[in-house]
Amino acid sequence: xxxxxxxxxxxxxxxxxxxxxxxxxxxxxxxxxxxxxxxxxxxxxxxxxxxxxxxxxxxxxxxxxxxxxxxxxxxxxxxxxxxxxxxxxxxxxxxxxxxxxxxxxxxxxxxxxxxxxxxxxxxxxxxxxxxxxxxxxxxxxxxxxxxxxxxxxxxxxxxxxxxxxxxxxxxxxxxxxxxxxxxxxxxxxxxxxxxxxxxxxxxxxxxxxxxxxxxxxxxxxxxxxxxxxxxxxxxxxxxxxxxxxxxxxxxxxxxxxxxxxxxxxxxxxxxxxxxxxxxxxxxxxxxxxxxxxxxxxxxxxxxxxxxxxxxxxxxxxxxxxxxxxxxxxxxxxxxxxxxxxxxxxxxxxxxxxxxxxxxxxxxxxxxxxxxxxx
Length: 374
Hints:
Blueprint: H1 2-17, E1 29-35, E2 37-53, E3 56-59, E4 65-70, E5 77-78, E6 83-87, H2 90-125, H3 131-164, E7 166-168, E8 173-175, E9 185-186, E10 195-198, E11 203-210, H4 214-222, E12 228-232, E13 239-248, E14 258-265, E15 277-294, E16 299-301, E17 304-310, E18 316-327, E19 330-334, E20 341-345, E21 356-358, H5 362-367
Parallel strand pairs: 1-21
Antiparallel strand pairs: 1-20, 2-11, 2-15, 3-10, 4-6, 4-9, 5-8, 6-7, 8-10, 11-14, 12-13, 12-15, 13-14, 15-19, 16-17, 17-18, 18-19
Helix pairs in contact: 2-3
């Protein structure tokens, strides 16, 4: 029994004093990395916009009559003062001739009254007639002068009506669908209109800017620098046209907290169409020599943005960063240094001090030199 006890004690002491095996280190986590670069990035303001022509004119007839000629085609590009339609001018030419005849007759009466006035003035100097007759003749001359003025006005109005029988384009632009045909009788100042002309070159886009951004936009406008505006399609994947900011409205919409802005586009190839929906991108400024990182490297925890920076011993350390601007898949941030490697993929089990091993991406494998065989 003594020997058994001694053997048991020896086994216990031997087990206690036996060196324990070292714990196995966790395996390195494979991650994708990308370096912090130094460069420039554009700061844009994105907004919804509507293509709006500078001028849109609904053509209506100023006089009533029958349409005798239609000189335009639907969709035609017309120039200013191009003839569009002709209204039967005969009634208005007749009225013009009447006004001309009335004016000639009353001018003759005025001429005769002035001759009589001279004769009356001479007779009055010789005391051959009383002053009353001279005053009456002077009133007759004044009356005839007024009649001539009235006739001149009627003649001018008749001439205007004759001119109105030829309907011409007041602006250059594209003609819409035709609402008239030869033989139709149109009223004066009708509501439907003969056609609509829309100016396409240049054309504008109206979009909204948040009131928090007004100071930045007006400050850039005050420098006199032309601010670029891009028009993108509905998916924001394709640029339709490029223009410049023209002006900002003079008041904020209190309901939406935004202010309207207008940008002008040359539209030389008719890329933009009136009332078309576009996404407007206003280039506010360009940040130069800032730290650029991939958007995929930035993680967020509540209101804090952070990244995982790779240390020399192949571990990672989290860094809080401040995002200055984002354009596409690239962001400008503070809190990191150029040349540092940041984790861009493989965050599942990552924490401060985790051992990592950079894994090859498809891009790096494609760029790697091929191995020689022999």
